[in-house]
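Open question from group meeting: does this chain pack into something compact, or does most of it stay loose? Before anyone orders reagents, we agreed to write out a predicted structure and look at it together. Recording both the input and the output here so the notebook holds the full record.
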Amino acid sequence: MLDDERGPLLRQALSRLDAAAAYLDLDQDVAEKLGAPRETLKARLLIRMDDGSRRAFTAWRCRYDDTRGPTKGGIRYHPASTMDEVEALAFWMTFKCAVMNLPYGGGKGAIRVDPHGLSRAELERLSRAYVQAFAGVIGPERDIPAPDVYTDAMVMGWMADEYGSLTGAPAPAVVTGKPVALGGSLGRGDATARGGWYLLRHLAARLGVEDQPGRVRRAIVQGYGNAGRHMARLLASDGWTIVGVSDSRGAVAAPGGIDFDALDAAKARGGVGLLEGPGVRRVDPDEILALDAELLVPAALEEMIHAGNVHLITAPVVLELANGPVTPEADEVLTARGITVLPDILANAGGVTVSYFEWVQNRQGWYWGEAEVHERLKAAMEREGDAIGDRVAALGIDWRTAAYVHGLARLADAIAAHGTQTDFRG
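Structure tokens returned:
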């Protein structure tokens, strides 16, 4: 694929691959295979609206690489989605699955739509239309979707049902993140946040943010959506004080901490910026980055921390719950300032890890209790966190580069194991 066929976000993502490759003795085949998506499909979904009219929506599904197994990745519904974004997200998923040693490659999907403008019936028709359009791409052994931005268990349930209708047999393993009643896994709802929380707790002493008598630990959550909400509550349960939160409609600062019930009520009314209370003040979303805190959790969309606002950050640790929230330029600034960034392909991997657990349970027809899911997730996050931390120490590099080195080493081994014979699978 020519460079000009790759969008700017994918090119930025690939710069992480180049940085990691410098620390490994790689065959040229590895860079060639991982330098572009294996396949990206585009479809036009035409659905009947509630008023009887028809409306078209653009949709994509990308299968970036399947060297280590069937591709895996979420589907997001967002008015600003693009093919470039989908391909970059699929690239990150490829590395995330390798970092966690899951038998998956990376995939991703999207529909360019504002789901808030659709009725429940319209949303269901759109979700089923997506499966109809990409039924030849997805499948329990080929490509397994999951929830992402503005999609949830309900949407996944519709998709699994539609796939079963098209194939003539129930196939719960075709998607993950489903309702528990339809084969979803216990523990999936907060898995992304819980995985990041387990990682932070395990590495706390190494990062200098461990709990100590008399110490106040403060955190900022940028993006109070599903992952951000769960992370804020998990941190608070562990003694952290949440001093700032934001969502797409505003932000608040609260040096004394936040009342989460009041915050949830404000968000339901129209955004976290509507929160009121003692010591709470509404601020510009970028202003929360400058609050005094020991931890910043970007949990919104890509590129929310960039050259224009990175100088505001004072927290010594950044834990990426969002995918690609820090641009490469901002990353360089953070590294130069000695700020530790726990990268997305490790820090938010709890979601895909528990999705893998769900897929395994669906395939074997044997379901685990929530405590077992939590224990397996905790073990996986701690194992890979330690392995990447060891690379940080051994190579003298930042955590993001170390995570990419870790994942790339596994991908390179898998590519080599496939052999050199011509393979039209790519």
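Observations to bring back to the group:
Residues 40-182 form a domain with the Rossmann fold fold (CATH 3.40.50.10860).
Confidence is low (pLDDT under 50) at residues 422-426.
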